[in-house]
Description:
Blueprint: H1 30-33, H2 44-50, H3 63-74, E1 78-84, H4 94-99, E2 105-110, H5 121-134, E3 144-146, H6 156-166, E4 171-175, H7 181-190, E5 201-204, E6 211-216, E7 222-225, H8 241-247, E8 256-260, E9 264-268, E10 272-276, E11 282-288, E12 294-298, H9 307-312, E13 328-334, E14 338-345, E15 349-356, E16 359-365, E17 370-374
Amino acid sequence: MSKFEFVRRCCNCGAILQCEHPEEEGYIEEQFLQKDLSAMIFCASCYASAKYNLMPAYPTLDENFLVMLQDAQARDALIVYVVDLFSFECSFIPEIVETISGLPMIVVANKRDLLPTSVSDANLKEYVAHRFCRAKIQVTHEDVVLTSFTSLSDTSNLAKMIQQKRAGHDVYIIGAVGAGKTLFLNAFLRNYENKTRRSIRRADYPDTKLAVLEIPLDNSSSIYDTPGTSLANSVLSILDEDGRKVVMPKIRVKSRKISLSQSERLFIGGIARIELMSKERCAFKCYFSEEVTLAKHHTKREESVTVEMMKKKGNVPQCSKLNTPSDFDVYEIHVDETGDRDIGIEGLGWFAFEGNKQIIRVFVPKGIGVYTSRSKIH
């Protein structure tokens, strides 16, 4: 009787995979070809050119920024690190983390008003501190301040905390673009009283081309409002203004419950999707802007998903960078932990589930950050 063998192909270019001839089409090292048949694999050429399945990218960094933070380190300055509580988990830049290591710090977690009231402030502070520690920045829940800045916000308590913790040293305010640094400064300046002979000024920071707002605190120390760091690994960086309006929540996010089986895919706004690779059905709580559509698609596992199919399932205005499957990074997350877990997409949102040895495949636009963590909301 004739015997049939399954022929494996590259999931990007479609070439038949082979291990014998490195110079020919479809070459792959034998160890990768031995993976389970359900695993997505690529020939060496596609893997090298498209950089599939590498660790999610970090935001980009202006080298001038490090010069400024090296000054902060030399001056034993206080760092006020402002983050967007809705989505900050992939915003840490290793060079910044290394440079500010050991400095006193206050973490200002902004946009508390976007998260459900059911989660306690204490749990959120613990979560933020946990994520900072994961990024190798040692802070405790006592260093975290939850805020929802508006032009009328009262920052008097935060100002007192800064005054006490800076111990007469300079203060550097850092954070990603859109985290809320400007709103914080505007609110802070409403109650600011300049008791020095120096004036508030905006100028290039010494030995850099970075425009920095300097606010005198006394005759020898100042607050430096630094430029926002990059959002290059955030969904927000690839969308136009209309797309960002859809993705960025305007009101408190609510959990949307969706259950997936192995034969179903979840499309998120038409710009990302998740697939459950393990056999047991899994329930997800999805936390995205209410304007972002979540659409399930039941399909045969071997059926390919086209970019056009994704667009039809979503409502986020598409950017010119998403045209072919190679414009997406693919991550396969093996969940070893038990208990409440999150998987998130930087700038877009996250979904929560009960960890139970699942394998979850996540498709995101190339270069966008993906993270897994204990749950932000219990």
